[in-house]
Design brief:
The chain is of the alpha+beta class. It contains 28 helices and 17 strands. The strands form 3 sheets. The chain has a 13-stranded mixed β-sheet with strand order 1-2-3-4-5-6-17-16-15-7-8-9-14. A two-stranded antiparallel ribbon has the order 10-11. A two-stranded antiparallel sheet has the order 12-13. It holds the Pfam family Rab3-GTPase_cat.
Length: about 900
């Protein structure tokens, strides 16, 4: 016997060791206790819309034979648990009470889990297994859940997900003290013929519940879904402007309708099986008789980017081009195109391009292959768009800017207050038009065409400088640092042109030598020896003359030496500078004395010129008088107000920095001669040098630098266009989602334009934001056009469109008989007529007249039915238990999801 026991071939089964599935069940029980799901609770009745609220989840991983299985707890947050004295341990489980409520029917929001949509529960456990699960059968996970629920006393329903994830196939159970419920499901690809109608579904439901006994009236909820696919392309929604060609209008919107389908949901929320008939031969379920009409929209996918954001994106792509100068090689004769274009103030461009493109003065068909990157016809249109003063018949001239009120008028007429801080260019200015035009050329014809257009632009700037022709579409005055750098440069060029014109017109009356050419005159003007000689002659001629160049007497200051009034002199105009030139200069508050050499030459020239003007206006003035007027901070008055000089002024002295050794101001004062500003030979502003600097800056721009210079103006234009689209319709302006999106876009465009260094990443984020806003506006306009045409902008319409834009199901005001319901019927009718005409055209059948034919809806795309009843089960002697079944029928899917409860005591 001992030998037999010690035989290694004998197999011993230890039945005291837990198996893997027993450990699995034990782990589920511990998790249920940990989450406190075994404590009985009764919640407030579920209300309509509760299942669309916020859900909370908890997750635990359970190991079964090396496989990780997911156990989740889902719970609807809203709903307050009654007090302890209101609870009754003998009541039906809360899940079975919830499923009998009509508030849980037909929930379609994505935030609601599919288990809750199918079975109408608001709290449940879900066990998710893998396809390669090691369970011996599909029902074994459900058996484990049922054992764990029974052992722990948990009344929360538990489900196990089987088959593929996309099938949403759930089986489950709910264990109460007196009632047990089984959750069952059927999922087929094809609907059985008898289940397509309500009569067959009722027979199936009754056969599952009763065994020959008479059932009470069955409550029904029915929903029919009719889908309408948008076949027509989206109309163009452009804000009307007063230009004829439309080039000033940035493209806006989508090439196709952003709405793919409209889903009309006809619902009968509360019926009984004795009130309605729905069979193959007859049906009472007519959409026009439905108690509730609701609507959902389905957005189209994989649409092309919207047009406006695509324009801004194109300029961002251009900013990714290499950093080489943005130029293009042309022959000499092609370079002269704009010279020929502007040889007259009103040229004929068609004649010019004929000579330029052929390479000679006579046109020839054999030379047309030399055409540039842009066809001549389009290039002519582009140039006239940028420079309308070259076209006598231009329909798009620039507005006339008033030097004082241009900024105010522009802001009041076109700019909302939110755009006041944008650092861009005036709307419809030259920079504005260039920012609209260049990205369109780049997107259509590539970088070579954009480079060609920029080459033509810089050549035109050179020609206008040489011929002293002002640049159109630029705000007058000095460079406005509140605008973008490109607009500042063009303002600077215009200032140089105006100075050149003024000097050439007055030169004949001032100097005999001004009859020479412009270039020679400019060179001689800055000759140092000539300047010194002429200035000395002027000083000698004015030694015994009266004071010159006085503007007006100072209201409070008197000369320290004579007590006479201190006259403010007429000085030379300040030198205009663009923002980048100002930033590149050394600070003007550097120390004025010492040998460090920190005083800027320009500062010395300005100070010396003003000293000369001051001496000419105040022959008896001294350095202290000049400092009191020019730099009051460097004149320190005596602390005692009673110490006055003989002229009744408080005494004072120069500041400490003015008393430094080798003070530069003292040296400049000693060298300055009494010469009024109009007679001074040295000019503070050299228009030739400044203009050449602007032209060199323009010609040296790379594609990236040019794109970054234009991006503020284009972003500004896009923001204005977006705001215009929102405000073009009073109803759209009231929608809560559109105005905040447009305002956020404007704020970010303003912030991007004011960055010290333009950032491409900032504008790329702006492109994504603009694309979202543009899609939202196009969707709202499409809905407005289809459902709410006319001037109605009531709060009801606003709420209706708002819910649709949020992709929610929304009730149609007035139902089938309301105004929106009438528009929906018209859309379905037109769709049927279009489909019928297409069918007749394909088959060759003659067209049939629709007059006199009554409209009827097509067959429903989806039919959903919820059946519920309280009946004894499993036998007539059992207690009454709640029963529910949900049925879904569509062309490629059939689903039954039922909860069938039974008496656990009397069966």
């Amino acid at each position: 016997m001992i030998a037999e026991v010690d035989d290694p071939d004998v197999y011993h089964q230890d039945f005291t060791t837990a198996s893997s599935w027993e450990e699995f069940v034990d782990r589920i029980e511990k998790i249920i206790v940990k989450w406190k799901l075994n404590e009985p609770k009764v919640r407030n009745p579920i209300k309509k819309g509760d299942l669309e609220g916020e859900w909370e989840t908890k997750t635990e991983h359970i190991s079964y034979e090396g496989e990780r299985i997911l156990l989740q707890w889902w719970n609807l947050k809203n709903g307050v648990t009654p007090s302890a004295e209101d609870t009754d341990s003998s009541l039906t489980p809360q899940a079975l009470v919830d499923m009998m409520s009509v508030a849980g029917d037909f929930v379609t929001v994505s935030s609601c889990p599919r288990v809750a949509q199918l079975y109408g529960v608001r709290e449940f456990l879900l066990l998710k297994t893998n396809k390669s699960s090691k369970f011996s059968s599909e029902t074994k996970p459900l058996s484990c859940l049922t054992i764990a629920l029974n052992a722990s006393g948990c009344e929360v329903p538990a489900f196990v997900q089987l088959l593929e994830d996309w099938q949403h196939f759930y089986l489950g159970s709910c264990i109460g003290k007196d009632v047990i419920a089984d959750y069952e499901m059927v999922h087929l690809e094809r609907t059985p013929q008898h289940c397509k109608y309500l009569t067959g579904l009722l027979d199936t439901f009754k056969s599952k519940i009763s065994r020959g006994q008479q059932l009470p009236s069955i409550e029904l909820a029915v929903r029919l879904t009719y889908s309408l696919k948008m076949l027509n392309p989206l109309q163009s929604y452009n804000v009307v402007t007063n230009n004829k060609s439309g080039m000033l209008n940035l493209p806006f919107g989508l090439a196709s309708d952003p709405i793919n389908k409209l889903h009309l949901l006809a619902t009968w929320p509360q019926l009984t099986d004795q009130m309605v008939v729905d069979s193959q031969s007859y049906s009472d379920l007519e959409p026009m008789q439905a108690h509730i009409w609701s609507l959902e929209i389905e957005l189209a996918e994989n649409l092309n980017p919207p047009k406006l954001s695509l324009c801004l994106s194109s300029l961002c792509k251009m900013a990714m081009e290499p950093h080489t100068p943005f130029t293009v090689e042309f022959s000499k004769k092609f370079v002269q195109s704009l010279d020929a274009l502007t040889e007259s103030r009103v040229p004929t461009i068609s004649k010019v391009f004929g000579r330029v493109l052929t390479g000679n003065t006579t046109s020839g068909a054999g030379n047309k292959k030399k055409q540039g990157a842009i066809p001549s016809s389009r290039l002519q249109e582009y140039l006239y768009f940028l420079f309308p003063d070259a076209d006598p018949n231009s329909a798009e001239p620039y507005e006339s800017y008033d030097a004082q009120d241009s900024s105010k008028s522009t802001q009041s007429s076109q700019h909302p207050k939110i755009l006041d801080g944008v650092k861009s260019a005036p709307p419809e200015s030259l920079v504005w038009r260039l920012a609209l035009l260049l990205p369109l050329i780049y997107a259509k014809d590539g970088v070579a065409a954009a480079a060609s257009m920029w080459f033509e632009f810089t050549e035109e700037m050179c020609y206008r400088w040489e011929q002293a022709i002002p640049v159109p579409g630029v705000r007058p005055g000095f460079a406005d640092h509140k605008t973008c750098i490109l607009h500042q440069k063009l303002q600077m060029l215009n200032v140089c042109i105006e100075k050149k014109k003024a000097r050439s017109q007055s030169g004949a009356h001032q100097r005999a030598g001004s009859s020479e050419s412009d270039g020679d005159g400019e060179d001689e003007f800055f000759d140092c020896d000539t300047t010194a000689t002429e200035e000395q002659d002027m000083v000698d001629a004015s030694d015994n003359s009266e004071p010159e160049g006085r503007k007006h007497a100072h209201p409070s200051l008197k000369l320290l030496r004579t007590g006479g009034p201190l006259y403010i002199p007429v000085t030379q105009d300040l030198v205009p500078k663009t923002e980048d030139e100002v930033e590149s200069e050394p600070p003007l508050d550097a120390p004025v004395g010492g040998s460090e050499g920190k005083v800027h030459l320009y500062s010395c020239s300005v100070t010396r010129s003003d000293m000369q003007s001051f001496k000419a206006a105040n022959p008896d003035g001294i350095l202290e008088d000049f400092v009191r007027w020019y730099s009051p901070g460097d004149w320190v008055e005596d602390q005692d107000p009673d110490k006055l000089d003989e002229w009744g002024q408080r005494r004072g002295e120069l500041s400490a920095r003015m008393r430094l050794q080798d003070n530069m101001w003292v040296q400049l004062w000693s060298m300055a001669q009494p010469v009024p500003a109009r007679k001074q030979v040295d000019r503070l502003f050299d228009e030739t040098r400044s203009a050449e600097g602007v032209l060199a800056w323009l010609e040296g721009l790379s594609a990236r630098a040019l794109a970054l210079a234009l991006l503020p103006a284009l972003a500004h234009a896009c923001a204005l266009r977006t705001l215009a689209e929102v405000h073009a319709d009073s109803l759209l302006g009231k929608l809560p989602g559109l105005q905040p999106a447009a305002d956020a876009l404007v704020r970010h465009a303003v912030a991007a334009s004011r960055e010290p260094e333009p950032s491409l990443q900032t504008y790329q984020r702006l492109v994504a934001e603009l694309e979202d806003a543009e899609r939202l506006i196009c969707t709202a306009r499409s809905l407005r056009c289809k459902l709410c045409p006319g001037p109605d902008a009531s709060d009801e319409m606003v709420a209706f469109l708002t819910a649709l834009l949020e992709l929610r199901e929304v009730t149609v005001p007035g139902g089938a008989r309301g105004r929106i319901g009438g528009n929906i019927r018209t859309m379905f009718s037109e769709a049927q007529m279009t489909a019928q005409m297409l069918s007749d055209a394909s088959t060759g059948a003659p067209g049939r007249s629709e007059s006199g034919k009554t409209f009827s809806f097509p067959a429903a795309d989806t039919k959903e039915v919820v059946m519920r009843v309280c009946a004894p089960r499993p036998s007539a002697a059992s207690r009454t238990c709640p029963q529910r079944m949900y049925a879904l029928h569509r062309r490629d899917e059939f689903r039954l999801a039922g909860c069938f409860s039974r008496d656990a005591t009397f069966f």
